[in-house]
Amino acid sequence: MKKGILWIGRKGRSVESIGFTGKWFIRWINKETRFHIRADISYDTTEFRIKENRLYFRDSLVKLSKYDTAIFTFNAEWITKENYKKIEEVFHWIKENTQFEIINDLQDFKRDAQKEEYFNHLKINNIQVPNYKVITRKEDLLDVKFPYILKFNNIHQWKKVYNIEEAEEYYKFLSTSLRKDELQEGLKYYDKFSDIKFSTLQFETKIIAVEFINNFNGKYCSASSVSFINGGMFYQYSLCCPEEGVDAIHIADVTNFDFFKDGQLELEEVINSNRETFKKVARLSLDTAKIDFLIVNGKPVFLEQGVKFGTSPNAIRFLESRYPKMEEKRSYKNMLNMISRRSYGS
Hints:
Elements: E1 4-8, H1 23-32, E2 37-39, E3 48-51, E4 54-57, E5 60-61, E6 67-72, H2 81-97, E7 101-103, H3 110-113, H4 115-123, E8 132-134, E9 148-152, E10 158-161, H5 164-180, H6 190-193, E11 207-211, E12 221-229, E13 232-241, H7 257-273, H8 275-284, E14 288-296, E15 299-306, H9 313-320, H10 325-328, H11 332-340
Parallel strand pairs: 1-2, 1-6, 6-7
Antiparallel strand pairs: 3-4, 4-5, 8-11, 9-10, 9-11, 12-13, 12-14, 14-15
């Protein structure tokens, strides 16, 4: 008989992601499932801890006989050295003292937080990724073909630069932020990231240049995602914009739903035509991961992985009503079933 799940990690800044959990997620689980789940809902750190060689949740001793699975989900971009040590201690204790199935190996999170690590990991396994370069000095800015994206490796916001003057100006801003150990005013969405102290982050922050890919197919540009759970594809969607050369595509940009439906058909064709590639990417990524990519000439060019599963309420509100197939492939109950490899009747 299947038992319960320990859902371990910090929620991070994404309050609407089922991957990081939250109070609404716990309420949903208690309503929809028959097995016991104990999960972190704290904003900044794990609520699990080791004391006198025993596992506690808050101040309560965890009764291990109730569980058979532990899943680790946290926002690796924001994890501090202090919080990582707490999660790491819990991870190793569970690994050494129980027979639990552990989902998402801790060492694999470094590729979630450091984009160049993920690019390199896929590239050496013959998976197509954009051209990229870690920028350690101003002279490196000339080693990437313009236009390209200039950014920190572990923060989503970026700037597309068209010439060396723009690149040098933005590089100065980024390098000053790193040197002073705080984000310098001027970056788009500065207020969202203004409290970053790079020296406290578990994974190293670097400046990288990434090839800008114009993935226009003659009708629209698209930005696509698939979610994998235990190596199986759980969910997929493609966002489309009828403009060529757009910097980024978001849900709010989807206004033409004919293009949107065309995009889902294109995505299904690309997945079917490149099924072995997607299977390989699943094996090289976190056990539970959302993978972002562009479609270029019928082939996927992979960008990043993360533990968010594409479950944003925006997708429900704006897209699923227009494309019912999305809802069919996006059941939270199915997601939890796939994570735990169990049936609800057991």
